[in-house]
Design brief:
Length: about 425
Amino acid sequence: MRTTDALWPKTVRPASSVLTRLRIALTVFFALDGFLFAGWVVRIPAVKEQVGASAGDLGLALLGVSAGAVATMLLAGGLCRRFGSPRVTVVTGVLLSLSVVLPSLVHSPLALGLVLLVFGVGYGGLNVGMNSLALEVVDALRRPVMPGFHAAYSLGGLAGAGLGGLLAPHLPPTPHLLLLVPAGLLATAVAGRVLLAHPVPRADRLPSGGAADEASDGASALRREGARRGGGGRGLVAVFGLIALCTAYGEGALAEWGALHIEQDLHAGPGIAAAGYAAVALAMAAGRLLGTAALERLGPTTCVVAGGLVACGGMLLGALAPFLWLVLLGFALTGLGLANIFPVAIARAGAISGPSGVAVASTLGYGGMLVGPVCIGFLAEGFGLPRALTTVAALAALAAWVAFAARNATAGAAA
């Protein structure tokens, strides 16, 4: 009898086939997350005008996203353990799809902040759920493929920004965002059915092989290191969370203020302004598609340090350059530099503490993504938007320094 027949009866789908289906379905959720978020952010200038908000008012309204997302992330790790990451992912995917249209239906900064709170709940819960599930898939595959999932997020953001750039000159925000609702619900239904029907196979049920086993050595060693350290393991999670915060701050700032910088400070039209976020999303997608190979070749510390320095230089160019093409180039370099830092930080935190590690690092990381735009708003009021955006460069440099300084703490668990 063939070995495969003994291991996999005909009534049981082979683990490798299940993993393929799960990986595809999970990739759909990451892409959907980026698509819906980008659909909202490219319409921020129009919604800002609709509600009559100043830069400071808009910053306060955006705090609704931050509050909803961070509060949900604090609870999502426990929800994933109790109900399972697939259920959390599907339920919050539905909520995000339904709430994306809400900002276009209000006419005051206060109301905008309240509906963005709901949007933030969906966004925060979805990100913890799908990242926790992605960590299980990474463990089962025994390869550092987390950047591939985040590449899907960036590609979804690119698609959302591209669609927004095409529709912004011709449609007001409400009909545009209404188009996203059925698309999001359909994707959630199709991909969610796969996640709910198939649990992630255990890694020990998959075929072993030298390359795959070697690729998993770093994550396994890091998990053992976290268990050995106990409270020190939580300290390592906090370090990775800080790195995620510094870089996600930049991603959030570019998402929610990049288009406004191009439109307001460089006097470009809404279609060109949307291209600014598209440049970031395209560069991040390209960097993440190459991320697994880069991690396997260079290691996480080198990737994080180099990425932080590239993002620092790119953001200084994007914030301060007087010409549109230089700003777009700077945005693209920033996206390329930031591309793999966040997924590496989330994956390594999760390797230490599972869903709890993902929740802590995600809370810090996405907290930076969501609080960052609020900080930019207040800084823009006092110093102007270009100078406010230079804080992105400062935090990218800080992430590179933290990763380099902490290299010895995780040297024995290098992925």
